[in-house]
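User: Hello! I'm new to structural biology and keep hearing that structure can be predicted from sequence alone. Could you demonstrate with Fumarylacetoacetate hydrolase family protein? Please show me the input and the output so I can see what each looks like.

Assistant: Of course. The first part below is the input, the amino acid sequence of Fumarylacetoacetate hydrolase family protein. The second part is the output, the predicted structure written as tokens.
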Amino acid sequence: MKLFRFGSPDHEHPGVVLSTGQHIDVTHFGEDYDESFFASNGPERLTHWLSAHAPNCPQVSADERFGPCIKRPSKIVCVGLNYAKHAAETGAASPAEPILFFKSTTAICGPNDNVVIPKRSEKTDWEVELAIIIGKRASYVELDDAMDYVAGYALHNDYSERVWQLERGGQWVKGKSADTFAPLGPYLVTKDEVPEPNSLHLWLSINGKRLQDSNTDDMIFNVPTLVSYISQFMTLLPGDVISTGTPAGVGLGMNPPWYLKPGDVVELGIEGLGKQKQTAVAFT
């Protein structure tokens, strides 16, 4: 199942992509894609509802804005340096354990919304990432059980202001949390449609130039390992996001480094999860 949300910011409606590719409005199902939805077997209940009501659901126009594919979650947990080649390009050793940091949920936006280069930003960078969406409350999860807690997956661009992240002291969250720094979607694809999340092609281009071109099989810590590991330190709630790290090809790793400027067009995608497109604009 592919879930999406559409409409104006903060007023999105839920939608579903049918097997025909048709995008339909499921507002009359009566729920948004939030913690309560996932905690109460939402995808299964929605599937059952669609069996009776799909023919009567309005079609969503191709002109509609895609919103983030889930309503604002309780947290976004990110994983740093989780691709071997990305760790190498930054000059860092591959981590012995997952490096964790948070990203503010206020950074979440639609997959094709403009990315706003923050006020006084010097080094706004890009990071295509596979996002895991948690399906049920997870605490002290055993590795062998970890996939039972996954609802599905989404495309995420983990935008990063490198000065604030790396040169201003403190934790990485400062460089990760500006408004529009977490475009998510267009789709949440349920795990039954993504049988091999640890073998997905992902890519990112700037102004038509391919800069990131890799596969999730380069992840140091795979999907079940991350779900289990993170749950040892915090409770993951339904709808929470784990962003699993980025492959090589970020601006920080280039020689010389290269960062976004107003007018740049960022395009990215992950096999089976859809594509995003953002235009960089200056803060006003």
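User: So the tokens describe the shape?

Assistant: Right, they're a compact way of writing down the 3D structure. Reading them back into a model, for example: The chain has a mean pLDDT of 97.
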